[in-house]
């Protein structure tokens, strides 16, 4: 009796660049606001809903299909973070909830910081580019939390915005590097070694 083995090959595209770019571009635009370049506006909220939120959720679902638990957790969580952040603004503006005070926002941001610390530990098994993204994001969440909790000066909040811009651009780099490296079939933009 002959037994045949069927192997299924995954030919779907890599969703990580979509998630990284959704996160990175939205993070840069929000932190340009935090750095004092412009006020919070509909552009930031729209990016938070559509690209930071929805695009990362799509990427997370695609990563789930590929069996990548880390990327599924990261993209779905941060996609929902962006939607919750927009909801915090809109719920108060619509009168559907009291605005969050600085202490509540500090707690919210600190929880995301704790989550991100653990995700950063996970990147120690991944490449240097992702370590940079999650490392700078951990710092960003805790700086934002400290800024709200202590009622920090505008200077500290602007410094936090610049750190967030670095974080966002690190994610943009990691996403675009994967796109170009795949297209050219070689390392165009290095991501750093993967720890075995």
Characterise the protein shown here.
With 196 residues, the protein is mostly helical. It has one domain. 36% of the residues are buried. It contains six helices and no strands.
Question: How does the SSE layout of this entry go?
Answer:
Blueprint: H1 16-34, H2 42-65, H3 69-93, H4 102-123, H5 128-150, H6 154-184
Helix pairs in contact: 1-2, 1-3, 1-6, 2-3, 4-5, 5-6
What would the keywords be for this entry?
196 residues, mainly alpha, 6 helices, 73% helix, globular
A few lines on this structure:
With 196 residues, the protein is mostly helical. It is 73% helix and 0% strand.
Mean of pLDDT:
96
Order of helices and strands: HHHHHH
Number of helices: 6
Question: Roughly what fraction of the amino acids lie in strands?
Answer: under 5%
Count of separate structural domains: 1
């Amino acid at each position: 009796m002959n037994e045949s083995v069927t192997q299924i090959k995954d030919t779907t595209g890599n969703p990580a660049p979509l998630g990284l770019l959704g996160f990175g571009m939205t993070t840069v635009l929000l932190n340009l606001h935090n750095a004092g370049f412009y006020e919070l506006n509909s552009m930031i909220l729209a990016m938070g809903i559509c690209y930071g939120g929805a695009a990362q959720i799509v990427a997370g679902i695609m990563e789930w299909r590929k069996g990548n638990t880390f990327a599924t957790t990261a993209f779905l969580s941060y996609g929902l973070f962006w939607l919750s952040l927009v909801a915090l603004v809109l719920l108060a503006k619509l009168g559907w909830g009291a605005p969050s005070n600085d202490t509540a926002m500090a707690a919210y941001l600190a929880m995301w910081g704790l989550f991100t610390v653990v995700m950063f530990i996970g990147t120690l098994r991944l490449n240097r580019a992702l370590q940079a993204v999650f490392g700078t994001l951990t710092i960003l969440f805790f700086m934002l939390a400290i800024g709200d909790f202590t009622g920090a000066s505008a200077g500290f909040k602007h410094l936090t915005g610049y750190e967030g811009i670095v974080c966002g651009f690190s994610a943009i780099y990691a996403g675009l590097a994967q796109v170009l490296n795949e297209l050219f079939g070689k390392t165009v933009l290095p991501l750093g070694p993967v720890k075995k």
